[in-house]
Amino acid sequence: MTELERMKELTAKLDEAAKAYYQESREIMTNLEYDTLYDELEALEKKTGTVLAKSPTMRVGYEVLSELPKETHPSAMLSLDKTKDTAVLQSFLGTQTGLLSWKLDGLTIVLTYENGLLQKAVTRGNSVVGEVVTPNAKQFINLPAKIPFSGRLVLRGEAVISYADFQALNEQIAEGESKYKNPRNLCVGSVRQLNSEITAGRQVRFEAFALVSAEENGVETDFSNSRREQFQWLANQGFDVVPYRVVTTETLPEAVAAFAEDIKTFELPSDGLVLLMDDIAYGESLGSTAKFPRNAMAFKWKDEQAETTLLDVEWSPSRTGLINPVAIFEPVELEGTTVSRASVHNISIVEGLQLGIGDTITVYKANMIIPQIAQNRTRSGKLTIPSVCPVCGKPTEIVQNQDARVLCCPNPDCTVKKIKLFELFVSRNAMNIDGLSTATVEKLIDRGFIHSLADIYHLERYQEEIVQMEGFGEKSYRNMIDSIERSRTPELGALIYALGIPGIGVANAKMLAKAFGYDLNRIRSASQEELTEIDGIGAVIAADVSAYFADPASAAQLDELLDELTIQIEETNEEQTLEGKVFVITGSVSHFANRNELKAYIEARGGKVTGSVSAKTDYLINNDAASNSTKNRKARELGIRILTEEEFLAL
């Protein structure tokens, strides 16, 4: 292959990966793979002196493809030149003072405030044209609704979702393909859509990283020619500014090392650092290239890699029938922790890596967090793909799922499918049935007590046998039956989620119920076209929903279940006494069944519940108000009132 042919091949691969990442919020290669191919292409361009017209090295972004309104940026939002070498950063900074900050991995947003109020929010888009997402930005949990500055302020920042909120939200999303792979995907999917109600429930945060202009009565605000002064001014206006350190050439290596240590516990996703010249005039005097501004540079982590031996690949079946491969290897130390497992995601990646037991592989932590296989040095390709399901023993199938080949168990009676379906059905956000743990469900299935979901409502037939089961007794049995009886009057959204329809999580289930007027029959008979008209429901999910209700077995199971239930329509006529108030809930509760019930109580009255304490929090609810927990300490530092449930109810 000639160098030009290789450049064309690299351009095509990078183009496909970037399109998936920026336009479709999904990943088809790791950051490490992308950077490696990009660096190879850039080296070939320098060597040959030829740059192809569509080369990623000449392009900043991609055309946005959505129904959101479009807007042209006043000036192009260029990306940053990058390095993995601290010495290059030092050379770039020279004798200047700089600000070293996190390079957050989310969605870049440009905000415009006028007269103290947010007027407009636009995504970066393709650097020239962005998408207007103002209603969604108003739902960011830490964004000030009003600021002291009465002029016209334009600033840039990153919309992000913390790892903790990502994990909590992902647990509410149906298994399989509906799961988000990382916080960035979830953030992009939360902001780049048409229903701001979705954004409101996703705990999206905004971290400011650049002040573009602050003009009042035609006069630009004076910041003493300092980016640091701009950051401090933004913080005083109520914005959360990306954490940063002031550095010189001498202190820069120590600061980079400190960030590398901090990322192990940093709550927000980051894929590197940004070094920005503090001297505004000097930085602007450097100008820019066609692609990069010269007043800042990105630092990408040198992913620590370790060589190890592939010992096994576990095949883990899911409720949706997907059988997911997980690589097991000799334990190695990475970024200060011992790792021995990494998800391989699907058959396409297994085949691309040409895996085989005993192969020598290199592993790393993506963004220093998530274990991944970087490459397979021996590439034996001898891994045997299971021809039968590891649980039920029935033949497996390899099918095409969007742009990846996946392994599936098509057997509808596969035990693991039943167990995981029952687990979902009884979970807190579904039917909320206590006493039916995974171990209990397995025992009930093994004994033939439950075959379908409706069988849960007839377990009293087997009282004598259940009471005699290990870990059970009369009291445990009675508590379980009482919880089952309480679940007979679910809200429609909870029931839809409980059915385990592929792609339908808690939020989508509630949207379906609301969109069809809380009429289950309308949902069951809806066409794919009607379903795709609902914000947040794409063609793939619409097809899955339509297929589920058209399936005779699913329809029969639902009809049987409906004979046991009385569906409640979720309505609230509560006075909005908590409107505009932001709460954080921690610890155990006693006046409510659980924290979710307390959260629903607050939201029904117009309040908002977030996952972490910040300057925007009005109250922290904790019955152990005197404890020295992290959230209590943070609340005290910020002067936020800590309430017990009794004090909250007295508000």
Structural features, described:
- The strands form five sheets. Strands 13, 14, 15, 16, 17, 18 and 19 form a seven-stranded antiparallel β-sheet that branches. The protein has a five-stranded mixed β-sheet with strand order 2-12-11-3-10. A five-stranded antiparallel β-sheet has the order 5-4-7-8-9.
- It has 651 residues and is an alpha+beta fold.
- A hairpin with a 2-residue loop joins strand 14 and strand 15.
- The longest helix has 21 residues, at 3-23.
- The chain has 24 helices and 23 strands.
- Helix 1 runs antiparallel to helix 2 (31-48), helix 12 crosses helix 13 (438-446) and helix 16 (492-498) packs across helix 17 (506-515).
Topology:
Layout: H1 3-23, H2 31-48, E1 70-72, E2 82-83, H3 86-93, E3 98-104, E4 107-114, E5 117-123, E6 129-131, H4 134-137, E7 152-160, H5 163-170, H6 183-191, H7 196-200, E8 205-216, E9 219-220, H8 227-236, E10 244-247, H9 252-262, E11 270-277, H10 280-285, E12 296-299, E13 306-317, E14 322-334, E15 337-343, H11 347-353, E16 360-366, E17 370-376, E18 397-401, E19 404-408, H12 415-426, H13 438-446, H14 463-467, H15 474-486, H16 492-498, H17 506-515, H18 520-525, H19 528-532, H20 539-550, H21 552-562, E20 582-585, H22 595-604, E21 608-610, E22 619-621, H23 630-638, E23 641-643, H24 645-649
Parallel strand pairs: 2-12, 20-21, 20-22, 22-23
Antiparallel strand pairs: 1-6, 3-10, 3-11, 4-5, 4-7, 7-8, 8-9, 11-12, 13-14, 13-16, 14-15, 14-19, 16-17, 18-19
Helix pairs in contact: 1-2, 12-13, 16-17
